[in-house]
Amino acid sequence: MPAVTIRNLSEEAHRALKARAAGHGRSTEAEMRNILEAAVRPADRVRIGSALSALSQNSGLTNADFEAVEQNRDKTPALPLSFE
Fold first, then answer.
1. End-to-end distance of the chain based on CA atoms, in angstroms?
2. Closest alpha carbon to 61 in 49, 69, 51, 72
3. Predicted pLDDT at 35
4. CA–CA gap between residue 30 and residue 33 (Å, rounded)
């Protein structure tokens, strides 16, 4: 795991972090990890899986559409690349 060193943190900020950590029942280090995670990975961010799922649900395609594609696709195995 990567490690981060924070230099020149004011005493006031350090005390506030310690108090906040104690209030949440965790170490100061765990509190800082929690703060950083929340800052860079907000709960309302768009996740790729959710976005793709919503896109497919809104497309109007049905299982019959996918079955038609499967029945009509070329099932011949692809030939390996040759670099000669």
1. 44
2. 69
3. 94
4. 5
Query: Mean of the per-residue pLDDT values for the chain?
Result: 90
Taking the model in full, what pTM does it have?
0.52
Q: What is the mean pLDDT of residues 26-44?
A: 90
In the block, which residue shows the tokens 């497309």?
A: 59
- With 0-12 / 13-18 / 19 or more C-beta atoms within 10 angstroms meaning exposed / middle / buried, residue 32 is middle
The length of the chain in residues reads 84
Q: Per-residue confidence at 45, pLDDT binned at 50, 70, 90?
A: confident
Instruction: Write down the pLDDT at residue 29.
Output: 94
Quick one: CA torsion of 66, 68, 70, 76, rounded to 10 degrees?
-150
Of 58, 40, 62, 41, give the one whose Cα is nearest residue 50.
58
The answer to whether 73 touches 65, Cβ cutoff 8 Å, is no
- For residue 25, the 8-state DSSP code is T
